[in-house]
Amino acid sequence: MKNPMFLPLVACVFLVSNALAVDWDNFKGEDYEEPAGASFQLLANTQDNIYGAAFGDGTWLKNTPVFGDFALSLFSNGIEDSFYSGISMTIRLMPHWRFAPFAGGGGSYNYSFSQSSEDDGTTSDIKEFKDQGESYWGYHAEAGIRVHTPQGRMLFELMARNVWTSLEGDRR
Question: Most buried of the four, 26, 89, 101, 104, by CB within 10 Å?
């Protein structure tokens, strides 16, 4: 199979099929959504010197393990010596358990505050990449575990995320 996203897409459609059977004339999104609340994330990649924070808001589709999160982030990228602001959306398959494993993916747009270009007129800056410091689109896959405290008001997540970008030299 040429498209690796085909099977996860089919699985998501199958899992939410009961939520998709909707009377569109009387549709109210709130009837199918369950608020998950706000979130705060610390972002760290010590190998590439990438650090930042993200602020999000999550929503569950009622009676399903489908979770969506919209987030705004600020982070620095040590490889590119640039600072970014991002907006992202992530969709996960995650049960409503106290110890909940999850897998998901999503996308983002990351705006560069440095807006470097190939011909910026300086010779002192050594640029490792042609498009270093430029804004870019990102696509990610993630997996991890979410742990709720016994009171259910606070949670912690430990996850790994792999990101592909629209920039050249994607593996940076």
Answer: 104
